[in-house]
Amino acid sequence: MPTAEQHGIRAHSDGAGAVVPVQTRSERFCSADVADFAPVNGREHEWKLSPVATFADLTGGELDGSRTPVESVEAEGVSVSWIGRDDVRIGTAGLPEDRGSANAWSSFGEAMLIAVTGEEQKTASVTRTALGSAPRAAHTVIEAAPNSRGLVVLRGTGDARLVENVEILVGEGANLTVVSLQEWSDDSVHLASHFARVGRDAKLKHIVVSLGGKVVRLNPSTHLAEQGGDVEALGLYFSDAGQHLEQQVYVHHDAPHTRSRVTYKGALQGEGARTVWIGDVLIGNAAVGTDSYEQNRNLVLTDGTRADSVPNLEIETGDIEGAGHASATGRFDDEQLFYLMARGIREEEARRLVVRGFLTEIVQQIGSPELEEHLIAALEAELQGS
After folding, report:
1. 3-class SS at 6?
2. In this protein, which residues make up the domain named SUF system FeS cluster assembly SufBD core (predicted)?
3. What is the pTM assigned to this prediction?
4. Do 279 and 306 fall into the same domain?
């Protein structure tokens, strides 16, 4: 029998004992224990586009894990309560992939539970405000019972230095919308990891709106774990001078006949305005019949800004309905401006109309007229500073 030596096959002298690189997105290391992660230095793949020095206390320091003060507006079929770390639901949707998320997981004392029941559509909101300048940790579980319907708004205002994890459990046949609204003060820092598990024939609409804060880094991850699961991941952000807004989105198609649509849109204005969007979609080998598409669009309003946009798509089966991705970053459409100005609209107003039309596509998909009106007003306020 021929041997390997006969064909010149031998191990590389410098490869023995080397760590095998991660081959696919689902193989990334995850742990709920912060001690399992090395200190953050900014060269890691998950941190290389982030201003890590501005939140070193959140990724490596001690955190206040007590209950965060909240104001809730509940509806019939939605309840807000607190549960212990030993609750069986904690850890069901996912586990941390970075040290900041793991630090929050290791530090929280109790988790806030938002439970949605009943087949009638309802809206509830939870607002956290004035958390202060001390570094804090938080953990939230949003659970939609089978066949339930509801919209849950998580809103942050005032001062904060917060790192948190949010788990979203969407039961069989449920239809849940979760809106994460960041309207923090100018000096606030917010790091968040959202983990969602979507059940059989269930649908999740996950919407991220980041307007305020010095640094906001919100990374949503969705596991389409059972047949017929559907996720619509939407994002809207407006970065001003010196503001860093970041989203790293991950969708894992892990079951047959699942669907995902990812659409994030942002605008940048002012010196040092920075946005980061990374979109990872993994279609596993069992996810036959998958239908997936992701896109990111950025509108640059002034010089001195930077938008990073990185779409990634992995496909492990050829039996799918479709999959694609797109990314674009650019300035105003001159034809649109010309069209408006030719009809007597001043250039400044024409620019505002173009930006508003670009961004409100996301706002109009929320499904809450009151919240949509609030966000349109907030966008108008942002544009007044341009």
Report:
1. helix
2. 137-358
3. 0.92
4. yes
